[in-house]
Design brief:
CATH class of one domain: Mainly Alpha
Distance between the termini: 52 Å
Largest sheet: 3 strands, antiparallel
CATH topology of one domain: Glycosyltransferase
CATH architecture of one domain: Alpha/alpha barrel
Number of strands: 16
Number of helices: 14
Strand order of the largest sheet: 5-6-7
Structural class: alpha+beta
Order of helices and strands: HHEEEEEHHEEHHEEHHEEEHHEEHHEEHH
Helix content: 40-55%
């Protein structure tokens, strides 16, 4: 290596402290920009409550908090907290801890996992709601222990928790292993009951009948995401086979083409689509990554590249029904509202996941644009999420009406959106540019 003469290079004559200051000043703006965040967990932390049940510490997330004071509100007929939201919160806190490690966050993850374990029924599935005295609501239709949304979310969150605690040498891992294994086992047995089913026609489409509730691709996506994490830990071949069965069913739910609506949309249930919880593309990307199998990736790519821009250009929709009339797909019963954060997050995750797999910048750009819905890039022109206090409004009811309540689902889904975007420089830049131009005051 050839060095320049110290006499000719005046840089070497500078005091080391001076050199450090010059370098720091030069790079400081970049450091600051990298560390800036729109994340604010204050409202989620407000919704979180540590409780004690039979001498065991647990964490719950209060379901509703209403404008203007954002005090807790009980879900009438259901309870004060549920597995759905505890699972969401735990997944967020795990991601948050990996970026901003903090003992208080770690404790929340442990307490929330204890709550999920408390909610498991003897049949292996999960109840959903608890009452204000912390007893389990075991009878209401959205709380019974059955193979449904809340059980899939519990499996996903507990799988994430087991992986997390294994990495951090926590004894909590041992509490999770057996209950989680039981939940997965009963789920596999239940899914096997539909294995002989093939297809059923709805609206002119041949819909696969081996998904959860036979035709629920939206539920299948959440379950696939959970089973993918579980397989990553256990390498259980039965789980791998079921992930592929479910993924094959999700693929069959994609309809349309690149030329006209509905632009390669994944149907959610039978021949209908709804924006909320539509995680099919995101789940297929997880499977592609897990199994090093890019065959599923092309289907996710199609929805991200064609359907998401269609939604963006039309100010988003809430739901619609499709009818296949002699290979001519017609959109019927289209509703634009309501629009909620739970509809935004799955699309952002899928877009960023696609970028991670392909390095296609267009996917990251789409993610940033969709995420900006939270900051006011929506049909109502309203900032739905506030970085100042972490409050996320519960939805856009119409162009001129906003639901300003801020419940757990909206709050957590917004945070899950932003934390993913801010790990992607391209999407983050788009989101921040929008915020600085339209939202920051």
């Amino acid at each position: 290596m050839k060095f320049k003469s110290m006499k000719k290079n005046k840089f070497y004559l500078l005091n080391p402290v001076t050199i450090f200051i010059i370098i720091f000043i030069a790079i400081a703006p970049n450091i600051i920009s990298q560390n800036k965040t729109l994340l604010n967990t204050a409202h989620l932390d407000h919704l979180y409550e540590k409780i004690n049940v039979n001498g065991k510490s647990m964490g719950i997330i209060h379901i509703y908090s209403d404008f203007p004071n954002y005090n807790f509100v009980e879900a009438k007929g259901e309870g004060i907290a549920c597995v759905d939201d505890a699972a969401r919160a735990m997944i967020f806190y795990i991601r948050y801890y990996e970026i901003y490690p903090d003992k208080a966050v770690f404790d929340k993850i442990e307490n929330l996992s204890n709550f999920l374990l408390y909610m498991q029924a003897k049949n292996g599935f999960f109840y959903n709601f608890i009452w204000k005295d912390y007893t389990i609501d075991s009878t209401y239709k959205t709380s019974v222990a059955e193979p449904n949304w809340w059980t899939w979310r519990a499996i996903w969150a507990l799988s994430e928790a087991q992986k997390f605690f294994l990495e951090h040498n926590s004894i909590t891992t041992h509490k999770i292993v057996t209950p989680l294994k039981r939940a997965v086992s009963v789920t596999l047995k239940w899914l096997a009951l539909n294995r002989k089913m093939k297809y059923k026609n709805f609206g002119g489409f041949e819909i696969p009948a081996w998904l959860p509730q036979k035709y629920a691709a939206d539920q299948a996506a959440i379950l696939v995401k959970g089973l993918a994490v579980y397989y990553e830990i256990t390498k259980d071949k039965r789980v791998k086979n079921e992930i592929k069965n479910l993924s094959d069913g999700i693929v069959k739910m994609q309809v349309g083409n690149s030329k006209q609506p509905p632009y390669y949309v994944f149907l959610s249930w039978r021949n209908s689509w709804h924006q909320w919880g539509n995680s099919q593309a995101d789940a297929l990307i997880d499977v592609s990554y897990l199994f090093h199998d890019r065959s599923y990736l092309k289907y996710a790519d199609r929805e991200v590249k064609y359907f998401y821009p269609y939604l963006l250009n039309n100010g988003f929709f809430n739901d619609f029904v499709l009818v296949n009339d002699n290979n001519n797909i017609v959109i019927k019963k289209l509703h634009k509202y309501s629009q909620i954060a739970y509809g935004i997050r799955p699309m952002v995750w899928a877009s960023i996941g696609l970028y991670k797999m392909t390095k296609d910048t267009s996917a990251a750009i789409i993610a940033g644009k969709i995420a900006s819905w939270l900051l006011g890039n929506n049909i109502a022109g309203t900032q739905m999420y506030s970085p100042k206090n972490g409050i996320t409004f519960d939805g856009i009811i119409s162009k001129n009406e906003i639901n300003k309540n801020s419940g757990a689902e909206s709050t957590i889904e917004a945070l899950l959106t932003i934390i993913d975007v801010e790990q992607n420089p391209i999407a983050k830049k788009i989101l921040w540019n929008y915020y600085n131009k339209h939202s920051a005051k």
